[in-house]
């Protein structure tokens, strides 16, 4: 075959416009691509994924933005992934099963740690690693929230990302962080940081009070493997809910324990969108869409949020703004991103009380609302 002429190459480049190298790559991986507002990851289907050596799927949420997506991995009993290294950052959350991860650092050391349901971990950038299902009888399912979307669209070169030998020794930090140890930095409520690579059980990890975000709210911000993928864990006590707020796209919310729902709306909307959730669900509020989380279960509700931009490395302006002038715990009337209880749509608390009547859980929001009046209105309407 004759080589293309300079003119032909130039014309081909002119014809190639509005490309998305990440989506092209995803389409070529041969695994299911799930595109939805919210996804039950425990029920989602997977298929063999040769690149990773196990079954998997790609999850594209409607509110993911241009930076982040989720990979879902199924490890059959006794299975293991192919040895991996890559120039994108990812945060793993264990949905079910037990196993271990082996990480090789640039100094030639190998670090191993064992994980179980509701573990979270991250590897230093481009460190070689391998994930093992420790059970010979039960499968394991893990979700990787990662910024390959951004990285591949920047470089549009797959070998550069997956077959690069560059090491990042400054990311490797304290070896004990692979064993679940870490270091806490306390700045202010809502900005208490835990540096680590591994959290053995997010459901049991101690969170710190952040009352400004809602009745009895608690939170911890994580810096994982000194990376730019941010994560935080928040909890609502029984019979309570968070205050409404908004931010940019791409923050993926995984339910750790409890059950409830989230209402979403754009400013000026007459109706709410709704996502019902429990452990296994993931959803991502779209760009600048107000959203509010409600616990309707008889246990505290806890969730993990993962997205691009950490409290150490904001990466994008929206994350910096959310930590500075447009803080998520400051009222929108004062330039922040939060709707205070007294300013929220009156329908919101009524909906909540109706939900609690169905689940049989008592409200603990009485100091913020005249619940006797609202309950009489509900009885009258019935």
Quick summary:
With 382 residues, this protein is of the alpha+beta class.
Task: Characterise the protein shown here.
The protein has 382 residues and is an alpha+beta fold. It has three domains: 32-171, Jelly Rolls, CATH 2.60.120.10; 201-343, Jelly Rolls (Sandwich); 349-381, no CATH class. The chain is 16% helix and 33% strand. It has seven helices and 25 strands. The chain has helices spanning 6-15, 21-28, 148-155, 158-162, 317-323, 346-359, 371-381, and strands at residues 33-36, 38-40, 47-49, 54-61, 69-75, 90-96, 99-104, 110-115, 120-121, 128-133, 140-146, 183-186, 192-196, 198-199, 208-209, 218-224, 229-236, 244-245, 252-257, 260-265, 273-277, 281-283, 290-295, 301-308, 338-339. The strands form five sheets. Strands 2, 12, 13, 15, 16, 17, 19, 22 and 24 form a nine-stranded mixed β-sheet that branches. Strands 1, 3, 4, 5, 6, 9, 11 and 14 form an eight-stranded mixed β-sheet that branches. Strands 8-7-10 form a three-stranded antiparallel β-sheet, with no helix packed on it. β4 and β5 form a beta hairpin. The protein starts with 5 loop residues before the first helix and ends with a helix. The mean pLDDT is 93.
Give the helices and strands, then pairings.
Blueprint: H1 6-15, H2 21-28, E1 33-36, E2 38-40, E3 47-49, E4 54-61, E5 69-75, E6 90-96, E7 99-104, E8 110-115, E9 120-121, E10 128-133, E11 140-146, H3 148-155, H4 158-162, E12 183-186, E13 192-196, E14 198-199, E15 208-209, E16 218-224, E17 229-236, E18 244-245, E19 252-257, E20 260-265, E21 273-277, E22 281-283, E23 290-295, E24 301-308, H5 317-323, E25 338-339, H6 346-359, H7 371-381
């Amino acid at each position: 075959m004759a080589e293309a002429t300079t003119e032909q190459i130039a014309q081909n480049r002119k014809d190639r416009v509005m490309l998305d190298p990440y989506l092209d790559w995803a389409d070529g991986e041969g695994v299911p691509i799930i595109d939805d507002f919210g996804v039950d990851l425990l029920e989602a289907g997977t298929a063999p994924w040769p690149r990773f050596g196990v079954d998997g799927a790609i999850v594209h949420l409607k509110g993911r933005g241009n930076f982040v997506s989720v990979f879902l991995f199924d490890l059959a009993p006794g299975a293991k992934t192919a040895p991996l290294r890559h120039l994108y950052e990812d945060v793993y959350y264990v949905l079910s099963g037990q196993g271990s991860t082996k990480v090789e650092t640039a100094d030639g050391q190998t670090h191993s740690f064992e994980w179980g349901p509701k573990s979270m971990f991250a590897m230093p950038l481009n460190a070689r690693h391998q994930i093992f299902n420790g059970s010979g009888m039960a499968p394991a399912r893990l979700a990787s929230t990662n910024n390959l979307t951004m990285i591949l669209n920047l470089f549009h070169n797959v070998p550069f990302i997956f077959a690069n030998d560059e090491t990042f020794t400054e990311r490797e930090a304290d070896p004990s962080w692979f064993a679940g140890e870490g270091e806490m930095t306390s700045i202010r409520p809502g900005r208490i940081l835990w540096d680590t690579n591994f959290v053995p059980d997010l459901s049991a990890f101690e969170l710190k009070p952040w009352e400004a975000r809602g009745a009895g709210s608690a939170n911890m911000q994580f810096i994982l493997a000194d990376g730019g993928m941010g994560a935080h864990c928040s909890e609502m006590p029984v019979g309570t809910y968070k205050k409404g707020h908004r931010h940019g796209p791409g923050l993926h919310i995984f339910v750790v324990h409890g059950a409830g729902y989230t209402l979403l709306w754009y400013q000026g909307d007459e109706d709410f969108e709704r996502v019902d959730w429990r452990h296994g669900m993931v959803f991502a509020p779209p760009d600048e869409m107000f959203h509010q989380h409600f616990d309707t279960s008889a246990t505290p509700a806890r969730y993990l949020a993962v997205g691009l931009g950490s409290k150490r490395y904001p990466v994008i302006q929206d994350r910096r703004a959310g930590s500075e002038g447009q803080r998520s715990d400051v009222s929108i009337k004062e330039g922040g991103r939060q709707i205070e209880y007294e300013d929220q749509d009156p329908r919101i608390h009524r909906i909540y009380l109706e939900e609690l009547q169905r689940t049989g859980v008592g409200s603990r929001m009485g100091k913020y609302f005249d619940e006797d009046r609202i309950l009489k209105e509900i009885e009258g309407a019935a």
